[in-house]
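Example 3.2
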Amino acid sequence: MINLKNLEVWFITGSQNLYGEETLKQVAQHAQQVAKGLNDADQIPVSITYKPIVKTPEEIFDTLQQANATANCIGVITWMHTFSPAKMWIRGLSILQKPLLHLHTQFNRDIPWNTINMDFMNLNQSAHGDREFGFMVSRMRKDRKVVVGHWQDEEVLNQINTWSRAAAGWYDWQGAKFARFGDNMRYVAVTEGDKVEAELKFGFSVNTYGIGDLVEIINSASDQSVHQLLDEYEESYNMAAELRKGGEKHQSVYDAAKIEIGLRKFLAEGNFKGFSDTFEDLHGMVQLPGIAVQRLMADGFGFAGEGDWKTAALVRACKVMGNGLPGANAFMEDYTYHFDPTNSLVLGSHMLEVDASLAKGKASLEVHPLGIGGKAAPARLVFNVAGGPALNASIVDMGNRFRLIVNEVEAVEAENELPNLPVARVLWKPLPNMKTGCTAWIYAGGAHHTAYSQNLTTAHFLDFANLAGIEYINIGVETKLDQFRNQLHWNEIFYK
């Protein structure tokens, strides 16, 4: 998984030469202290890198051009300590390709009522310097995140944290490669999409690879490497005796481990960040990948079944954005409903491939027949997911745009054993309630596949959608269907 602290956000402070050397020296000192304070804040996962203050159009252009060219720079934070005439910023902003956060703050939190004089006023001019800058960014129609408040305030730090995580997810997509083993599940609509437009819009590529190429690598796995992985399985998961070495079902686990070794090698050698497969194209494979997919997701790869490359990419982005936070992110599917009017629930699951990072307690490695795909019984990890607030997110291709839909949900503990359902499973209540949440999801065209997140918020997804320049739809506790449908109608006009 990517180390977010290796990524930089540049802290750029605007001023001008009008104020003289002494004032500019103080501006630089204050800017360094603010940048250091942000960099040292526990809430912010990336490195905040101070850059020398900019005072001329040439300095602004050169600094922003360097930001574009610096590989690990994922965005810039701008702050106008003094008045910085915004026409100086036109050329630099016109070439800026990195995400932008405008921090509307000032060095001092409080006005020094007894000592304030015109020298203090000339030095601390963010209240109107940032407005001048804000006009120009709006005039140029450049999207950005605006955060207002003192730079040491908890809320300000949390907003910068959220934006920096979204910027990290966006950065991770640029040049990313996603492999598609086989094609889309036949006749399915929502998992389709324009891969050319996705590469133009999102920066990642999706290409198909023949299942035979993967099978060749799987078959080349050494017996020694398989046994080493089997030892890891036995140590990491609950396993019945029949699955262990010498057991009557051990061969199924052996075959599953071989698939993991081959799949991992294929992805690593191809520098892929995620993948999809489909049970309609398994020629040469003994079983549908189950535990292999689950473990690869736990290590940070994006995945979605049945050729759904959009969800695979979204799962990867969620894993990057949520890196280091309590909880996990995984591929999910709304599978079936519990329509008890006093306790309506969604049962989320998938045939085999839900990431065990979500597991409450130690997962069980099990082998059971799968009534689809026509292959041998696959090995998979079986577990329940803990209760608590979560999100389901889906990217769909609406023809003229991509749409990101996020539903706030409340996961609940499973009260029943489910002895005949040997898959990973989670129960949740869609917000604001079952009927409204599901109705809104249907109206918005949300997919049955989602990225399920225990540690991200709607603010992360909103910032991410804004960075990507795509439509964002939220379904949550405040959703009312008449207003929601109006929003969809208004968005249609906007995106036309």
